[in-house]
Amino acid sequence: MDILAPNTASDAIARRAETLDTITAVLPIDRRDKLAEILTDQDVETLRHLVNEGMGANTLRALTSDLAYLEAWALAATENPLPWPAPEALLLKFVAHHLWDPARRENDPEHGMPANVDQALRDGGFLRSTGPHAPDTVRRRLANWSTLTKWRGLDGAFASPALRSALRLAVRAVPRPRRRKSAKAVTCDVLAKLLATCGEHSLRDLRDRAILMVAFASGGRRRSEVAGLRMEQLTVEPPVAGEDGSPLPSLSIHLGRTKNSGAGQDEVVYLTGRPVDALNAWLAAAKIGGGSVFRAIDRWGHVSRRALDPKAVNDIVKQRAAIAGLDPADYSAHGLRSGFLTEAAIRNISLLEAMDQSRHRSVQQAGSYYNHATRRSGLATRLL
């Protein structure tokens, strides 16, 4: 961060905050003031350029979050702004500060992230967890650091043998078991228990039922996609014939560009039957005719005009699990995504058909849910 006189610095922060206001649709605006303090003028200008270039909202949020963290870490670790391009020594320091051995730390307090750096990041709200970072988090931040460096027309040392070796050895020295985003999948039997906790009349019950059913039936949509869903993305489709021949309501959801789609590609998924009814019931009760589909509800039953926070989708899953008598620690919003594919496998729906709805691009990743379901119930597990 540039060192400026008090008044000049305050003016610069205010200017950056105003600029960030112009791109609130894709940035975590609840942290606008903190971002304005941490990011430099060039950082903010880069972000605005990326918005104008049409970068995906989720990708830009991740870049912004990582950039703010890197800026805060550089100030805490070196007492200087983040340099562009970063020298190899700083990249190695970043790895050493974030991937370390807790057992060695017990006997060597200097091992890993220094206490003063750790405290500075916690005081700023940039660090919450304890212990070394997950290797994937470190790799992602290094990758985004490299990307931001290239966008500035600069070359970095991100491909240096020393950095690759340090990262590989650090990961090997501190093995971390891969944890699932949701300990258990929300399959139809679990979903039925969650839905049973939703009444028929209160706005909160109607909203939560619609969220659960839409998120699951639309292929296990990510919580950011559910929270950010807007009325303009919904299109009423001709009814679909049910098993008994009766017409079932149908609509399409235009997801636009998603995490797995290519640039300019509009991903579309479909809802049929009960999920459509649940969604329509919520929209009618909340009197929503445009804008955000899912919104916060205050204690007096007033529906907000702003979109629901993605974290709230996760909270809803856990709250409904607790009311249903399940352990909320076992379930999260991602359980709806894994549950959709697991349920599809159990019902012998073809993998390609399920992927067409979930919008997974990797057969290997989507197929892992099928393999797990098949192995658990297959003949090979019942030889005795």
UniProtKB/TrEMBL annotation:
Entry-linked CDD domains: INT_Cre_C (cd00799)
Any one GO biological process: chromosome segregation
Signal peptide range: none
Keywords (A to Z) from UniProt: Chromosome partition, DNA integration, DNA recombination, DNA-binding, Plasmid
PROSITE patterns reported for this sequence: TYR_RECOMBINASE
Domain Tyr recombinase residue range list: 181-384
GO molecular function annotation: DNA binding
InterPro entries linked: DNA_brk_join_enz, Integrase-like_cat_sf, Integrase_catalytic, Integrase_recombinase_N, Tyrosine_recombinase_XerCD
Domain of life assignment: Bacteria
Pfam families on file: Phage_integrase
SUPFAM superfamilies: DNA breaking-rejoining enzymes, lambda integrase-like, N-terminal domain
Name by which UniProt lists this protein: Integrase family protein
Species whose genome carries this gene: Rhizobium etli bv. mimosae str. IE4771
High-level lineage: Bacteria, Pseudomonadati, Pseudomonadota, Alphaproteobacteria, Hyphomicrobiales
